[in-house]
């Protein structure tokens, strides 16, 4: 296995890359990242999933344009990362098929700005009531929760994948840390 671009370690399909965007007065997006971390009470404001797309390893992530494959990149000056890997390796084919079901779905600004704020601060859920409704749009953590919903259902029985909270799903029992800076 070799590293890709300037990423510090070799990656595998199913790896979860949690990102802490560093604050920068000149970067308005870092303000949003800081607000997400503050209100969600988390260290990492974004998460990307490693998958294959058109024969290349890529990140699958929910960004402003939707759930998209993006090149594997790492910018030490702008972010800190945590990489978690499943203890039992994922079935590469099944995992990628699951991610394909949500690729190119729209980004869910409403959930990011309002639903998650109410959920994380006041413990009031005003989001999707059914999986069908939840599957229409995604935020980054929901992309991870959907991809790993089988494992998460074991760790959090009775909780719907779209109603999890970021702080409880970063350090899961079925994953281990392979890199942190």
Any key phrases for this structure?
alpha+beta; six-stranded antiparallel beta sheet; two-stranded parallel ribbon; 7 helices
Question: Care to describe what's here?
Answer:
With 181 residues, this protein is α+β, with helices and mostly antiparallel strands. The protein has helices spanning 28-40, 92-100, 109-122, 131-134, 140-147, 149-155, 166-169; strands at residues 16-21, 46-53, 56-63, 66-70, 79-86, 106-107, 137-138, 175-180. The protein has a six-stranded antiparallel beta sheet with strand order 4-3-2-1-5-8, with helices on one face. The protein has a two-stranded parallel ribbon with strand order 6-7. A hairpin with a 2-residue loop joins strand 2 and strand 3 (56-63). It is globular.
Q: What strand order characterises the main sheet? A: 4-3-2-1-5-8
Number of strands: 8
Rg, rounded, reads: 15 Å
What summary fits the major beta sheet?
A: 6 strands, antiparallel
- Name the overall outline: globular
Helix vs. strand class: alpha+beta
């Amino acid at each position: 296995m070799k590293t890709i671009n300037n990423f510090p370690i070799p990656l595998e399909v199913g790896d979860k890359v949690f990102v802490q965007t560093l604050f920068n007065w000149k970067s308005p997006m870092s303000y949003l990242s800081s607000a997400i971390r503050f209100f969600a009470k988390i260290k990492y404001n974004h998460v990307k999933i490693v998958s294959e797309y058109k024969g290349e390893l890529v990140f699958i992530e929910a960004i402003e344009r939707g759930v998209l494959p993006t090149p594997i990149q790492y910018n030490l000056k702008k972010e800190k990362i945590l990489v978690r890997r499943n203890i039992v390796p994922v079935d590469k084919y099944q995992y990628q098929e699951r991610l394909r079901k949500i690729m190119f779905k729209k980004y869910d600004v409403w959930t990011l700005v309002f639903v998650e704020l109410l959920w994380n601060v006041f413990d009031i859920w005003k989001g999707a009531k059914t999986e069908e409704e939840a599957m229409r749009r995604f935020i980054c953590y929901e992309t991870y929760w959907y991809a790993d919903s089988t494992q998460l259902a074991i760790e959090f029985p009775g909780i719907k994948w779209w109603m999890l909270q970021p702080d409880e799903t970063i350090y899961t029992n079925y994953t281990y840390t392979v890199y942190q800076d």
